[in-house]
Every structure is written in structure tokens, then in C-alpha cells.
Design brief:
Helices cover 78% and strands 4% of the residues. The protein has 181 residues and is mostly helical. The chain has a domain of 113 residues. The chain has a two-stranded antiparallel ribbon. Helix 1 packs parallel to helix 7, helix 6 crosses helix 8 and helix 7 runs antiparallel to helix 8. The radius of gyration is 21 Å and the shape is elongated.
Length: 181
């Protein structure tokens, strides 16, 4: 009887560990899907910065920045201050969310597939990049949104940093615990 109870508790413990590993990954994927389902007009944050559109200080401070992204020029002259700032916030969000998704995906895959350690990092990276591609395709079906290869590249860079950060942090922790204990 005690053996059966012990096994049941062990199974629940393993199940809860799997849930705790997968929950952040699933949550981030739902957040990404939710945002890519919204039309641009529902995500437009330029009104928050519109007071800066006529700011001589902001224009002078940022007017030297100009580059191409997704086939169009990104600059104060081309977009105005509010759209220029929104561009960096949106792209920063792209980088950050895919950084986090990659970090937690490596963590989950490492905990779930511990026998295939050499494949965890490349499979995690591939999984997240494929999700980024599917996200851009999904945006193509959403009104007012444009799928961009440039966004997939940015997401992939965020993903790479997430994987590297997990690996480096994990190595540091292993080194620390070996040294301390």
C-alpha cells in the first residue's frame, strides 16, 4: 500500500516538474500568438509619444540615426519621432520575447530530454526559430500587419542570445557549485 502511494506521489512530482518546465514556454508562445493576432491599430503606441513629434531636442538628439529595415528607411525624417521611438520599442519587444522563449525552451528541453544533451541547444534554437517563422506567417493573415523576414532575423538573434545566456549561466552555476561544495 505504501509503495503504491509512494509511486503515485512520484508520478505527481514528475508531472508537476514537467508542467513547471513547460508552463513558461507555453505562456510565452500564447503571448506571442496573441500579439500577432492583433491588428497594428490595436497595438499602436505612437499617441504616447506624439508630444515629442515637435520637440526640437528629440529631433536633434535622434536625427543622425538612419538605416534600412525591412526594405524601408527608419529615421526621424522618414517616420517622425513617435513612430521612430515606437519602432525601437516594438523591435526591442521582438528581441526580448524571443530571448525569453529560447531561454525557457532550452531549460524545458534540458529537463525533459536529459538523455540527448548534445541535441538540446540546436533543437531548442530550431524550435524557437520555426515558431518565429510561423509567427510572421500568422501576421500575414492579420489586418494591418506585415510579415517581415527582417523580424525573423531579429527574433533569431534574440533566440541565439537566449540560448547562449542559458548555456553560460548554467556553466557558471555548475562551476560555482563544484567550487563551493
Amino acid at each position: 500500500m505504501l509503495y503504491i502511494l509512494y509511486n503515485d506521489l512520484k508520478k505527481k512530482e514528475v508531472f508537476m516538474k514537467k508542467i513547471s518546465l513547460l508552463a513558461p514556454v507555453i505562456l510565452l508562445m500564447v503571448i506571442i500568438f496573441s500579439f500577432s493576432s492583433q491588428p497594428y491599430k490595436d497595438q499602436d503606441i505612437t499617441p504616447w509619444f506624439s508630444f515629442l513629434d515637435d520637440s526640437k531636442f528629440a529631433i536633434q538628439l535622434l536625427s543622425w540615426i538612419s538605416f534600412q529595415y525591412g526594405g524601408s528607411e527608419v529615421s526621424i525624417a522618414e517616420k517622425g519621432v513617435s513612430h521612430f521611438l515606437e519602432f525601437f520599442i516594438r523591435k526591442g519587444a521582438h528581441f526580448t520575447i524571443y530571448f525569453l522563449l529560447a531561454y525557457f525552451t532550452v531549460r524545458a528541453f534540458k529537463g525533459l530530454f536529459s538523455k540527448r544533451r548534445s541535441l538540446i541547444i540546436p533543437i531548442s534554437y530550431l524550435f524557437v526559430v520555426l515558431y518565429a517563422i510561423s509567427d510572421e506567417i500568422h501576421q500575414g493573415f492579420t489586418g494591418g500587419r506585415t510579415p517581415l523576414v527582417s523580424d525573423v532575423i531579429l527574433d533569431s538573434i534574440g533566440c541565439a542570445f537566449g540560448v547562449i545566456c542559458f548555456f553560460l549561466l548554467h556553466q557558471k552555476l555548475i562551476h560555482f557549485f563544484k567550487r563551493v561544495f
